[in-house]
Specification:
The protein is α+β, with helices and mostly antiparallel strands. It has three helices and eight strands; from the N terminus they run βαβαββββββα. It has one domain: 2-Layer Sandwich (Alpha-D-Glucose-1,6-Bisphosphate, Chain A, domain 4), CATH 3.30.530.
């Protein structure tokens, strides 16, 4: 676990309604030519999204397997831009998991969450990644200014998923 002298800033919890009411919601579906079980296995592996080439600095599940509601993990973005602690409040094994950030090492956001939905399709699966966030009052202008870049950065997840599963089908 990343501990040491890190100062942690608490974020507010959220529920599934936040994914429709948040000031910023990014819903990013992608069709994949692999069965849903393969997508789910990748999403819950020890490396999770890091294997997709997203350049995560670090991802650590901080709860023992089997995972479920209450599971926690710690994630550091590239360049250690921010490190967050996450708690999953929905875990539908094989199809859906949803978390909110409990703490971050930078005071940027009031609330932040992600939803991962995996559905079967006639040709494989559909993965829908949804990100919802609410900045702190002092960072609203910064987040509004960065919104086009955020959208582009978030869009990389489905693109990388498609490329990863094309190589590892």
């Amino acid at each position: 676990m990343l501990c040491g002298m890190t100062r942690w800033y608490p974020l507010e919890p959220l529920d599934e309604s936040f994914f429709t009411t948040a000031p910023y919601v990014y819903r990013l579906p992608v069709e994949l030519d692999v069965p849903p079980e393969r997508v789910w296995a990748s999403l819950t592996s020890d490396r999770a999204l890091a294997d997709w080439g997203l350049g995560l600095h670090r991802l650590e599940w901080t709860s023992p397997r089997p995972f479920g509601v209450g599971t926690t993990r710690e994630v550091s973005l590239p360049g250690r831009a921010i490190t967050v602690r996450e708690k999953f409040f929905r875990w539908d094994e094989g199809s859906r998991k949803t978390f909110y950030v409990t703490e971050a090492d930078r005071p940027l956001l009031r609330r932040f969450g992600e939803d991962y939905l995996v559905e079967a399709t006639p040709t494989g699966s559909r993965f829908t990644w949804t990100v919802a966030l609410e900045p702190l009052p002092r960072t609203r202008a910064l987040v509004r200014f960065a919104e086009p870049l955020n959208h582009l950065a978030f869009r990389a997840v489905p693109w990388r998923a498609k490329a990863y599963f094309a190589r590892h089908s």
